[in-house]
Amino acid sequence: MIVEFGHFALVLAVVVALFQTVVPLIGTLSRERRLMETARPAAILQLLLLLTAFLALMQAYVMSDFSVANVAANSHSTKPLIYRISGVWGNHEGSMLLWVLILASFGAAVAIFGNNLPLSLRANVLSVQASIALAFGIFMLATSNPFLRLENPPIDGRGLNPILQDPALAFHPPFLYAGYVGFSIAFSFAIAALIEGRIDAAWARWVRPWTLAAWMCLTLGIAMGSWWAYYELGWGGWWFWDPVENASFMPWLAGTALLHSALVMEKRETLKVWTILLAILTFSLSLMGTFLVRSGVLTSVHAFAVDPERGVAILAIMTIFVGGGLALFALRAGELRQGGLFAPISREGALVLNNVLLTTAAATVFVGTLYPLLLEGLTGDKISVGAPFFNMTFIPLMVPLLIALPFGPFMPWKRGDLIGVSQRLIATAVLALVAMVATMAMTERGPWLAPIMMAVGVYVMAGALQELAYRAKIGSAGREEVLRRLWNLPRSVYGTTLAHFGVGMMVVGIVATSAYQTERVLVMKPGDSVDVAGFTLVFNGVAPNKGPNYSEQVAAFDVTRGGQPVITLHPSKRIYDSPPQPTSEAGIHASWRGDLYTVLGDAQEEDGGYAFRFYFNPLVRFIWLGALVMFIAGGVSLSDRRLRVGAPNRKSRSNAPAGAVAAE
Amino acid sequence: MTRKQKRGVLIGTAVAILASAAIMVAFALRDTIVFFQTPSDIAEGKVKSGERFRLGGLVADGSVERGQGTKVKFAVTDTLQTVPVSYEGILPDLFREGQGVVAEGRLDANGQFVADTVLAKHDENYMPPEVAAALKEKGVKLGEGAKHPGAKTN
Questions:
Q1: A9 CB contacts (<8 Å, ≥6 apart)?
Q2: Of the residues A103, A192, B21, B68, which has the fewest C-beta atoms closer than 10 A?
């Protein structure tokens, strides 16, 4: 009964979305105030309905109602509660519902918090937002309805893929969706601006918080996915350039560019047209990611198993929104007034460089991800494009970006002095050189590029801190003044410092793990010992064990370092009950120095030995810590009061006709 | 600098970066892509020796031989032709006879495929779609157990 209620709520939500798409738009086109005002309650109602639907589905999962087809296909009565809950979005239909729910949440948030938006802008934004919800809502009802019932319910479900039964992975999709679905708001604002034919600095001030919130979530979501892959998949790697990973990475790259370009737009009223285009492109990449993951065109450890028909439907939706958005851009971008120009060496210039490098990088990842599909379509040859391609193309774009990074915040607007800024970064450069020399001293082998890249990472970290120190006049003013300055610095400055510091941390972690990883693969019998990166591991045999929905073989290692006991590690192989599937659980000892990572392989028939793989991954935790720091930085920035104030501009409060008032 | 010069510098830099990226991509696509082949493709001589590629098919029944340490030999078949494979390392969890497998490596002078990577799969009945498609192309009828779960959800 509750399920039917949820189903009905979904249908109603689609109807409301239709209303919310059409009516406010008519309102803005005909300047009819009351029609425009319907957008806000409609958005809130849409959210409530979708939330009802989502909770109804969750109830079916938690109660293990196997008469619901979706629950029967993806859940099992022995699954622990948390995984019954996260199983709601562990499949195509349920995750689509989550997708649309998050879309509606962002729309409702604009409706509730966007009080100082001009009415017509808000109406247009909500209308566009609703159109996306409408499209995907219809898609769900037509092809991916999670509420369908089975005529003969099975006694128990087919269960969730065991490797998905994991805390990190349980919460990875919600963050991921909050991320790239959140970029829909930027898209809606962009389309709304094009419809109105007007855009000003205030627009950027409204867009930035939403984009930042989406970006934060996407950063964390991708990091969670990477961390999960690292400890679960047993290959000691943390990024595989898997098409599905790339599908989330491309919107991240574009979204980072958008964050920075909106900043320029807000402060300097320039780069307007580019920012709008970027907003459209970012969400287009999100849609493309949705398409790639669900259409079945990609082979991946990751992809949902979906009908090609659904893929075609998503592709059609994508074409409408991306094509429509770009067409509208082509038609209306000319209406937008151009802003001022700036010297190439200036903060704007640095941010333009940031944008060019990031979008080119996104394009590179795009090519690498889609080229196999293209080639297969054209010639029938099946190829794979992997890490070697991306190392050759992506990294060379990131290096100049990282080098330019610390310069950016130091640069003044409009016109900057490169020599002057360089002088302020001397301490940073020295620290980086020290890091490079230290790296070379501490490691015997490895790529020659690695100490240099390590220096770059430290340089970025130090540069971020140095800029903060400069603003607080550390070293040139008295202690009291420094503290006063630090206290009064706006939070967005701290946000910037933290975010860039996080980037540097990630670079350090990535370089250390990629260049200096130790790997050993060998067969061991109980009592054997092996040395890995200074640790001594003694194998103490394998014992069986039983879990809630699996049985496993657990190996035990006593790990010592320099004679001192450190930990016992238990890599294991599990066989889950339903669906029956073997997985490996790595035994990991994490420390600041790096991770000791152990994997249990197969038993050797004859002599009671087992195959093992050992890794030492130096500084690997810095990668996800860096991402976490970036997430926190986003939050710090968002809490800046200045960012939340909507539009104090004089003209924005009125409902003046669109064409009558030029942008400031 | 005049307005035009400023704009010129900005656009020029952007174009330069894009162009360099495009050139790198072109080179990378040529040098780093890895083709997917089946045993029949190898038998037909489509693969140059020494070229790195991916071999896909089914693990031939009865072909798995564990050697010393972590060395293992097995054979990959598409039911028409079979290729011997040698690999040193830990095999993925779902590796078993009769299941689909994708290995990456090179052919040695004796026609044996020396794999440096054997790819993991995520589902027991999973056959990589490339394998399934390639097998189908060769006219191999796939049985129940070999169906790609992506074909239809239940």
A1: A49, A50, A52, A53, A56
A2: B68
